[in-house]
Amino acid sequence: MKAWQINSYGGIDVFDLVTLPNPTPKKDWVLINIKAFGINRSELYTRQGHSGDAVTLPRVLGIECVGEVLEGGGTDLQPGQKVAACMGNMGRLYDGGYAEMTLIPRSNVFPVNTELDWDVFGAIPETYLTAWGALKEAIDLQPGSSLLVRGGTSAAGLASINIAKEMGCTVFATTRTENKVPVLQKAGVDHILMDSGKVEDQVKAILPEGVNGVIEFVGLEHTILDCLQSTAPKGTVCMVGFLGDTWDYKFFPWMPSTVNLTIYNSETLHTDSATPALQQIVDHVASGAYSPNIHEVFEFKNLPQAHDTMENNRAAGKLVVRVD
Length: 324
Hints:
Blueprint: E1 2-6, E2 15-19, E3 29-38, H1 41-48, E4 59-60, E5 64-71, E6 82-86, E7 101-105, E8 109-111, H2 118-122, H3 125-139, E9 146-150, H4 155-166, E10 170-175, H5 181-186, E11 191-194, H6 200-206, E12 211-216, H7 221-229, E13 231-239, E14 260-263, H8 271-287, E15 294-299, H9 303-311, E16 318-322
Helix pairs in contact: 3-4, 3-8
């Protein structure tokens, strides 16, 4: 099979398009014929060398993919079933989705019934399941409440907006650049905030007590503290991403009284809970209730260019790679 492999850390030039033996089927692992996969910022950080002992080299990166089952490994999954796969050390301690095939533990494979195009299906799993988990499980966002999305034009930010708007919530979202404002307008954001590092005053000019929940994709100390100050009593700030390129914290913020700070990590994903959630998400995309939020689809041979687009912050939405 063809695969994009790294043997060292660095820029996009560390990617090698190689031919590897097809994965050998084994019990309780699912062999998947990959049709498409999304690009994620965590993969960029891994390629740059920031994942430490969580990754061994050489490695085929990729924490998600969609495709069809080739071998079910003695599980309930049968050849030909459509599936998605996410996380569970995928693309870290064992080879992931940047390939024509991959072998994934059954616990991180999610069977889905869908007629969506592979490109669209490939844009959904990691991004939407992360947003879904953060909003539904970590924040426990209620219908008709208010939400601030810090980093709104990221793929997961747009997914969060889609979910919250479908719930009838009032949505605030940030961007640092004027040229991405139309993306947030199209997503139906109620209040677009230009983010210079502080948005508390903008939020409280509209909602004096603050928002009920914040999903924080920037991940810098000053943005987290600002989000805490933008949140109403008994509200929750959920840290999810690190668009600010910093992820090693040695601080404990001075938190406003009764405001909660939590984190959602997609390592939480397991097939028992994620499969029904993903099926519901896919059905909502198919009906038009949610958007796949695709910025660009790349051919498999152009994967390094997809990484370059993400690394230079040229995307507003999801980057997808099609595997022919």
